[in-house]
Amino acid sequence: MKMQGRSVFTYDVYAPTTITTMLRPRRQEGQAILEEGFNIEPSVPFSEYTDLYGNPCQRTILPVGQVTITTEVQAQVNKTKEIPSPAPGYVLVGDLPDDIMHYILPSRYCESDLHEINMLALEIAGNLTPGYDQVEAIRSWIHQNVKYQYGMTDSSTTALDLARNRIGVCRDFTHLAIALCRNLCIPTRMTVGYLDKLKDMDLHAWFDVYIGGDWYTFDAVQEKTEGYRIEIAHGRDAADVAMVTQYGNATLQSLHVEVHLLEEEEEV
């Protein structure tokens, strides 16, 4: 399927402000980038680099005044990968590849080592077959027991906060899912990008788990994980995949996101 995503960030900048961004899409299997654009108005020079997780990043200094950052992508993508039958099982920690190991550790927003997280993980999935069954139970529990609502959480909200308050947005849903899965020693990462099936269009976050020797996508916001996605970045949690990180005095005034499917599915 050919899919298009577009994001427009508008900032009021009160002093020259250094920023780093993750706004250009990853180039990877299942996602062929056909066209993309990255523009800052007024025009300023920027540099690019690749972070530890293979995410393309940009870096620049925003000038004083109103600044607009526009990013666009058109990609050929596959539908969210279906879970095979029989469902993939748990991979023993001793058998995990070296580059997967850090995805079972606690991180800034995902306190997977806390007793309260452990008790909730066992309550939800402790009696289930390790692997897919546990992950899907966690995803479904969050979808059914956490209310989706803007304005109730902020950039300091963690998985533990959501486990207690049970109200938040996709970032929060994803952090809780990651913490619960990691508590069960299932490698889990946070992914951000575009999804075509959103009631309120925005940039979106979901989680990927490593089971059966491969990565599979799960989305606790959706009733059922489905749809087409363009992946922009992935990492341990929101600290690794912030789409804009600023070091100075600037305020985000608006964010406009558009997602469109352009043609029938074609396998990538």
Automatic annotation (TrEMBL):
Boundaries of each Transglutaminase-like domain copy?
162-222
What span is annotated as the signal peptide, if there is one?
Answer: none
Source domain of life: Bacteria
**Which InterPro entries does its entry note?**
Papain-like_cys_pep_sf, Transglutaminase-like
One of this protein's Pfam families, by short name? Transglut_core
Q: What is this protein called?
A: Transglutaminase family protein
Q: Which organism is it from?
A: Dyadobacter psychrotolerans
